[in-house]
Specification:
mainly alpha, flat, 250 residues, 81% helix
């Protein structure tokens, strides 16, 4: 190998290494921007923390006639902080999606970059829709089942930490699974996913959906599992349609 060829190889390697370091720097700043958005969202949530806890998050318990108890010293303080942080994350979801796609954008083609704004908006709508579905459909039926199941000789008094763990996990899990159509659109636009593939493995997907519903729902509540599995199956069918529509546009 000549000295010139060796020098050229070292130069190319240096450029690749510099490119890799630049990507790491870009990733670092995107994470910082995302965390900054979550901090701002947390501060806003803390300003309205009484409204969030009393009028929104405790309402399903009140409607189901559930008695809640705080069993830990400073339990309510830590609970309010947890609610503020999670609510801050939900408020900053558009920014998180935007920063994620801005990091991915350099790897996309020019005709693919124009869909970033749509994907961010669509992702946000899907996530919020999942949270709304969990709050108005899944949680009331799940809590009603929890209260009515068993014997009347045992009084059902729920620990406040367990209650908030259930409603937070159900709402966030529902928000994530409602991202399926957006994921289908994005992967189809990139040419990774095809509707024929999704149709071929529909039965396998239903089995995976039932397994995922069992994992994402807290405890062994069959009502919550079924309520999450049904929209998941519908979302899978919608994702096939979205993938087909996306490829037609391509």
């Amino acid at each position: 190998m000549s000295a010139e060829t060796k020098k050229l190889g070292e130069s190319s390697q240096a450029e690749a290494e510099m490119s890799f370091l630049e990507h790491l720097e870009e990733l670092r700043w995107r994470i910082i921007y995302s965390l900054l958005g979550i901090v701002i969202g947390t501060i806003i949530s803390w300003i309205f923390i009484d409204f969030l806890v009393e009028d929104i998050l405790l309402k399903p318990a009140a409607d189901a006639h559930i008695t809640l108890q705080n069993l830990r010293p400073f339990g309510q303080l830590f609970l309010f902080l947890q609610v503020a942080i999670i609510s801050g994350f939900v408020l900053s979801i558009p920014n998180v999606f935007y920063q994620t796609w801005k990091f991915i954008a350099p790897a996309l083609k020019s005709n693919e970059k124009k869909y970033v704004g749509f994907i961010v908006s669509f992702s946000t709508v899907c996530f919020i829709t999942g949270i709304v579905f969990a709050y108005f459909v899944m949680l009331p039926m799940t809590l009603k089942f929890a209260v009515q199941f068993g014997t009347q000789k045992i009084e059902n008094n729920f620990a406040i930490s367990e209650y908030f763990s259930i409603i937070m996990s159900v709402m966030l899990a529902s928000g994530l699974v409602f991202e399926l159509p957006m994921l289908s659109f994005a992967l189809s636009k990139l040419g990774i996913l095809k509707p024929s593939f999704m149709k071929k493995y529909r039965r396998h997907a239903i089995v995976i959906i039932m397994f995922a519903a069992a994992i994402l729902t807290p405890g062994t509540d069959p009502v919550a599992q079924i309520l999450l599995a049904i929209p998941l199956v519908l979302l899978y069918e919608i994702s096939i349609f979205v993938s087909k529509l996306s490829q037609k546009k391509n």
